[in-house]
Amino acid sequence: MNAKFYPCEAGDSEKLFVLIHGFMSWSFSFQSLIPSLVNHAHVLTLDLPGFGRSKKDVKYEFSYEQFTKTVQDMIDRREEHFTDIVPVGHSMGGQIALRLARSNRCVHRVVLLASSGDMQKSSKRLRWASRLPFFDVWLARYVRDRDVSHVLKQVIHDNKKVTTEQIDAYSLPLQENLMYRALSKFIRQREGILSREELHKITKPVLLLWGENDRIVPVGVGRYLEKELHRAKLKVFPKVGHLLPEEIPLEVGEEIIRFSAGKERSE
């Protein structure tokens, strides 16, 4: 397997929460959310191929569809038989969660946390550039020149919530050179987001959780998804940025548990 998995057991529950991280992130982003979920269902997190502590296999096809197949393979390898699978996708992970909803009959509900919804396929110029020799070297230099603490302060609304642990955790994967070769392939192979027509075909209930002050994926994207998905409900949290699982893990956990039990709020 190209991905690194982290299972959290929860008795005999037939429900499974699958936590799928976003772009340039990894399973660390869910560490504060997991304690709110683990007493209610099995919880499975992962580092998608090319990210976090996963294998950086440059032969892997770095596309949303392949990521979805990898996550599905991970679920199939489990000894337990889950009849109620709830994908929880953050940012880019939302595109994978929606694709799981299309392909897995045991997925009855989907949770999207500040999901990407307007990220089109990379431009032809960028895809061409990614094939140039040493593009991955340039990419590594470009990324490493960015101050991780500054980036976190851009995505977390309350700068006081940025911790040394977060800075260290998000800095760690950036030191691995193979990650940039994988990232170069991702730039070339990543599809665009699901089209409006594809979104219309998803008839399962979808919970959209958003931060009002998200500067990475603005709340307008959430409103667009609520409009295009037949059974979607959007909840917006004030004074919250892009990293909902880390900024307000208890509130997010409560919403996920209520929604997955079929007890959505009407407001």
Give an overview of the whole structure:
This protein is of the alpha/beta class and 267 residues long. It has a domain at 4-121 and 193-260: Alpha/Beta hydrolase fold, catalytic domain (Rossmann fold). Helix content is 39%, strand content 15%. It has twelve helices and seven strands. The protein has a seven-stranded mixed sheet, sandwiched between helices. Helix 3 links the parallel strand 4 (84-90) and strand 5 (110-113). Helix 2 (64-76) packs across helix 3 and helix 5 (135-144) packs across helix 8 (178-189). The longest helix has 13 residues, at 64-76. It starts with a strand and ends in a 7-residue tail after the last helix. The mean pLDDT is 83.
